[in-house]
Amino acid sequence: MRILRLTDIRASRIPKLIQKCSTSDDVASYINEAQERLMQKGRWWGMLRRYAICVTEGYITWPRHVASIEAASLCDSPITVRNKFFEFMEMGMGLQRKDVGDLQVLDRDESCIFIDVAGIDKTIKVTADVAEATPAPQVLLRGYLPSGRPIRTQVGGSWIEGEYVDINNAVPAISTNIFAAPGPRQVILPGNLNGIVRLYSYDPATTDEVLIATYDPDETVPWYRRSMIAGLENCCTSCGTTSDCSDVRVVVICLMEHIPVANDNDTLVIQNLEALTHTCQAMRYEEMDSATSIRKADAHMAKAIVALEKELEHHAGAGTVVPIRVEGTTWGAGNIEAIY
Questions:
Q1: DSSP classification of residue 122
Q2: Quick one: which of 108, 241, 275, 322 could link to 304 by a disulfide (CB 3.0–4.6 Å)?
């Protein structure tokens, strides 16, 4: 099975069908929108991945390519994944905490950083792994002061929300403002950087620092899914000698998020060239904005979905036994008696 890259798309029929030069930036623009459309229409082949992580506390911030958690296992035993409404059921368990709860993966709000800032007396330190352009690019950090007021600074005679901080690997820059917990609420990067950017919670009094975020060079407005495993911190500190993890080992099946491709060797999540071709053709017909072209666009999108369904059937095989997921305890409705 080959892996589709952007360079393979440039060498395919797609540039000719959308009437673009194979080296044009428009090819990447088309294919990125095509992949994003298809990824939101189903759980196609290659979109579900298995990840194992070692955790030390109940909160988990997932990498940028994780869209949702479909299944989870804690220390080799399956646990239930819940959505945001589970804690608000009238006859349910109520609000859960990382140190009190029933070992379930609960959805939490998204965040632009991996680890929250502790306390109300921290600034933000910005470092870069490699040298960037001159003058130094900047990252915009938005958040709140310890007083609860939003941080505002003056740039070029105008007031803006947030503070710009230089991205410099030679001399790391530190924000002039104190960011109250949980830290920056929004981070805006310039994108197209040379290397990774790191954010630290920095204590001006002690110079202590804690890494709170790591950003890829192409990220612009980072936003990550978060989960909490209720009761984890009072449950166990490790999985014992049977695990390859010195801490608690969590294995998940996650649904992949669309990450735009930009460089020729960047790989696509959707590996079905037929589906991508039909979707790009549908997008081109949509631009014509006529009754005939809209019908043609719909026809191509329908063919793209059929191609993905056939690919999924091809890889899943006919001999697979599909498991039935049944919840052992029915929260909010009482237990269901067994019928013999």
A1: B
A2: 275
Residue 337 lies in a domain: no
Token readout for 21 is 């030069």
- Is residue 117 in a domain? no
User: What does the pLDDT look like over 282-309, one tens digit per residue?
Assistant: 999 999 988 899 999 999 999 999 999 9
The tens digit of pLDDT for each residue in 34-85 reads 999 999 999 999 999 999 988 878 889 999 999 999 999 998 889 999 999 9
Domain residues for the domain of 289 are 6-40+258-315
Sign of CA dihedral 153, 155, 157, 162: negative
Q: How far is residue 187's CA from residue 111's CA, in Å, rounded to a whole number?
A: 10
Residue 206's contacts (CB-CB under 8 Å, 6 or more residues apart) are none
Amino acid at 156: G
Amino acid at 328: G
Q: Which residues pair with 228 in a beta bridge?
A: 59, 106
Shared-domain flag, residues 164 and 16: no
Query: Do 190 and 138 form a contact (C-beta atoms < 8 A)?
Result: yes
Q: Is residue 143 part of a domain?
A: yes
Kindly report whether the peptide bond that precedes residue 204 is cis, defined as omega within 30 degrees of 0: no
Same domain, 152 and 215: yes
From edge to edge, which strands make up the β-sheet containing 186-188? 163-166, 138-142, 186-188
Q: What pLDDT score does 243 carry?
A: 58
pLDDT > 80? residue 241: no
Q: By CB neighbour count within 10 A (0-12 exposed, 13-18 middle, 19+ buried), where does 92 fall?
A: middle
Q: What is the pLDDT of residue 119?
A: 86
Domain count, the chain: 3
Cα 24 to Cα 310: distance, rounded to the nearest angstrom? 31
Encoding tokens for residue 274?
Answer: 């037929």
Domain membership flag for residue 240: yes
The answer to whether residues 100 and 248 belong to one domain is yes
Phi–psi pair at 198, nearest 5 degrees: -125, 140
| Residue 203 and residue 137 share a domain | yes
Total-model pTM: 0.86
Amino acid symbol at 210: V
Amino acid at 233: E
